Amino acid sequence: MGFKAANQQVYLYGGHVTSWKNDHGEELLFVSSKAIFKPPKAIRGGIPICFPQFSNHGPLEQHGFARNRFWSIDTDPPPFPTNSSTKAFVDLILKPSEEDLKIWPHSFEFRLRVTLGPGGDLMLTSSIRNTNVEGKPFTFTFAYHTYFSVSDISEVRVEGLETLDYLDNLKNKEQLTEQGLVWNPWDKKAKAMADFGDDEYKHMLCMETAAVEKAITLKPGEEWRGRQELSAVPSSYCSGQLDPQRVLQSS
Ligand SMILES: O=P(O)(O)OC[C@H]1O[C@H](O)[C@H](O)[C@@H](O)[C@@H]1O
Questions:
Q1: How distant, in Å, are the alpha carbons of 81, 86, 140 from that of 63?
Q2: Which of 208, 213, 222, 229 is catalytic?
Q3: What domains, with CATH codes, occur in the chain?
Q4: Whole-model pTM?
């Protein structure tokens, strides 16, 4: 399924955004040529939604089950606020199946709103509501596992994360500072991955907007929202202009 705003376009598969093109028709997201589009296997690329568990931070399968499910489209979604000029969006809904409830016994409704802004910005808003009727709270971690397409990984620099704390997965989740939470499998791991081309690590970079360090707890009836906004700007714009504290405060 896809939709357009001006010359930009977005494609989705299940609850995955698999393509985001700018107005020159250039693809901004990476999807592996070997990606498998068949649930329950997660798609290697695009923007998988990690829920209700990020990575292996808990007893569930890696990154939770939401990325491996088909979502339904809300054909009558709540409107945007009247002062918003945004019109191009789709709402996808995920509710747990009987099977999901066996592995994670919590009723929820997850609304993923995918929006193309007037300038081609891609916005993903996740609204997760606890719909348990018998008064039970639940706790989750979450991430947008965004795979960006890059022409040459050796020419890429990630700015703005230097002062932040991060948990190093390769050092038993030790908390460290002054690095980016950034994922690329690099050459050896790329060869070991069946759904990833041997040289494709040169053309991707994962930046994950996440709620991991402090898990989110929702009581029945409560809702949590997490938004990721992506804009493509000329490379000359970026250097030194992104202040991580400002980004964190405005989000
Ligand atoms: O292979 P996947 O389950 O899609 O996970 C891909 C990657 O996701 C995260 O970024 C983790 O930090 C990595 O350790 C993991 O390899």
A1: 32, 31, 11
A2: 208
A3: 2-156+180-234 (2.70.98.10)
A4: 0.89
